[in-house]
Amino acid sequence: MVQTMKKAAAENVPYAFRNYSPEQLREVLHKMHLIRRFEEGAEDAYTRGLIHGTMHLSIGQEASAMGICMPLKPDDQITSTHRGHGHCIAKGAQVDRMFAEFFGKTTGYCKGRGGSMHIADVSAGNLGANGIVAGGIPIAVGAALSAKMQKNGKVVICFFGDGANNEGAFHESLNMASIWKLPVVFVCENNGYGMSTSTARSTAVANIADRAVAYSMPGVTVFGNDFSAVAEASTEAVDRARRGEGPSLIETKTYRHRGHSKSDRNRYRTKEEIEEWKALRDPISLFETELKQFGIMDDAAIAKVRETVEAEIAAGIAFAKDSPMPSTADVLNFVYTEQQ
Amino acid sequence: MDAAVRELSYSQAIQEAMAIALESDPRVFLMGEDIGVYGGAFQVTGDLVERFGTDRVIDMPISELGGAGVAVGAAVTGMRPIFEFQFSDFATLALEQIVNQAAKMRFMLGGEVSVPLVMRFPAGSGTGAAAQHSQSLEAWLAHVPGLKVIQPATPHDAKGMLLAALQDPDPVMIFEHKLLYKMKGEVPAGHYTVPIGKAEIRKAGKDATIVATSIMVHKALDAAAQLMAEGIDVEVIDLRTIRPIDRETVIESVKKTTRLLCVYEAVKTLGIGAEISAMIAESEAFDYLDAPIMRLGGSESPIPYNPELEKAAVPQVPDIVAGIRKLAEGRR
């Protein structure tokens, strides 16, 4: 009887709170805030004309990036998307070098050549964001083929959005990963809209993970704003990949608070819809509630995390501002390897 | 003949290069459609799968876009893929990965990665395969910074340039004319390289320069032999690499001969001939010209099925002979 009661209690405790230490959980909250404040800082710098071009913000999707990267080892690899700042931070990038990249500076991760849409951090295993929808999917499969051939035990996470699931590259890549049993986890962050077109209008299945059946791989749909649920699904898929049992497809259902990019006037969704997601399903608020509920952090500790993040963001922006611009004489650098 | 030099066909020479690479470098693997037990649509991979196994000679699904991306991903994570398109025309399905990813990844990432990728494209007309299996699309890819594009014209170069491509840290696109696969020539045994970016003067001459690519090198040499009998001494340059172009060899030759004919199979307009012509017009060789530059290229049409039409759609030896005769008019 006591045993049964204990088991029931354990089942009511979310996966993350059964499996991660308080230090790990605090760090997750720190990173989630870091992602959000990075995005807000980038948006602010853009508005003030310090960053040009465009950018795609992942505010509202922080739990998906953090939960998916939770089971990864430092030398595991990811491919990311145009909405990839969160993935970059979750995989271990420093915000100062990210800001520097957005500012076009030589100290940026891509020395000012890539910007927001091509941010990468190869030494931390981030093979890069991608400006082409589904462009990174076959590249992730190639990285997983390398891992299998080199028998190095690495797992590759392939992030993409709901829009990418209708590209041919999605179909070709999932099929190849499955027939070759490659150590790759496909992660569809379904935020409901491919630019302005809703998944209801663009996609013939209700859940994108249902498409896994067509590739003979496990497919699971989770609430993407629930850090614990995402981390649990990712851990299962990453473990399976590491055991050599092949790929999985995870769909994290989430929502972006901001528009698609800087040109978006939000004409395809209602203000009420946006406000409802912010008020009821904000991933950071949901996680903070759990942290308090399970006695990991109190309001004061959470406030302290926010303060730390503010300082990191301010220092990152200052670093970017103070960093040197590339010389226009170096426009040919990095086209070919002999050009450095 | 040197004991170490044998007669091999162009396709055997490529296969030998791939075998040497597979033997000596564990990072090298082949992927493509029907390159395993089938041996490749043109039998270039032949029995390599029996020697090196299905893990290193990978039959991929008919998925050119995905497959090309897999090769890119493998290349940036420590492997050395050699990717075979069944026909160069099918590269149209994979341009996203070639143009947006392979060519730009090093640049976009600020030099943090290299993409040591070799892709092979069986190209060209003359097999009766009609418009979707006969194109010469090399200039498309040569327009993209970040790629290197080569067109070996002999078995010797096919082997040596493939082995050079495998030492190159950047993506190298190899266009192989299908009619050359059965052509025989002297090929040294063992490992050697032929440099990428260096043209070769196949026949020295003083009266006019022909800059030719791929199969047109052989047609130009046939034309040059005929013209020699008429007292016109033509220099034939095998360009071999169309990105980067060997400017020096072409410019020096034109300064010497004062006349230039460009011959290539791809559609004439906006092709390699336009680039060579502009390069001469912009160089000191322009002042040496004694006649307008002339181009002979493919017709402004898809490649037709009918064999006579097919031949008419690309430059032939009599066209080259006539072209040079016209250029040489008014010669002292």
Give an overview of the whole structure.
The complex is a heterodimer of chains A (340) and B (332). Chain A is 46% helix and 9% strand. Chain A has 340 residues and is an alpha/beta fold. Chain A has a single domain (22-261, 277-282, 297-319), classed as Thiamin diphosphate (ThDP)-binding fold, Pyr/PP domains (Rossmann fold, 3-Layer(aba) Sandwich). In chain A, strands 1-2-3-7-6 form a five-stranded parallel sheet, sandwiched between helices. In chain A, strands 4-5 form a two-stranded antiparallel ribbon. Chain A is globular. Chain B has 332 residues and is α/β, with parallel strands linked by helices. Chain B has two domains: 8-188, Thiamin diphosphate (ThDP)-binding fold, Pyr/PP domains (Rossmann fold, 3-Layer(aba) Sandwich), CATH 3.40.50; 200-328, Rossmann fold (3-Layer(aba) Sandwich), CATH 3.40.50. Chain B has helices at residues 10-24, 48-52, 64-75, 95-102, 105-108, 138-142, 155-165, 215-229, 247-257, 272-281, 307-312, 317-328, and strands at residues 5-9, 28-32, 57-59, 80-84, 118-123, 148-150, 172-177, 184-188, 200-203, 208-212, 234-238, 241-243, 260-267, 294-298. The chains are: A alpha/beta (340), B alpha/beta (332). The interface between A and B is large, with 46 and 40 residues.
Structural topology:
The complex is a heterodimer of chains A (340) and B (332).
Chain A (H helix, E strand, L loop, with lengths): L1 H11 L2 H5 L2 H26 L14 H8 L7 E3 L5 H6 L4 H8 L33 H15 L5 E6 L6 H12 L4 E7 L2 E2 L2 E2 H4 L16 E5 L3 H16 L5 E6 L17 H10 L2 H11 L5 H24 L18
Parallel strand pairs in A: 1-2, 2-3, 3-7, 6-7
Antiparallel strand pairs in A: 4-5
Chain B lengths: L4 E5 H15 L3 E5 L15 H5 L4 E3 L4 H12 L4 E5 L10 H8 L2 H4 L9 E6 L14 H5 L5 E3 L4 H11 L6 E6 L6 E5 L11 E4 L4 E5 L2 H15 L4 E5 L2 E3 L3 H11 L2 E8 L4 H10 L12 E5 L8 H6 L4 H12 L4
Parallel strand pairs in B: 2-3, 2-4, 4-5, 5-7, 6-7, 10-11, 10-13, 13-14
Antiparallel strand pairs in B: 1-8, 6-12, 9-11
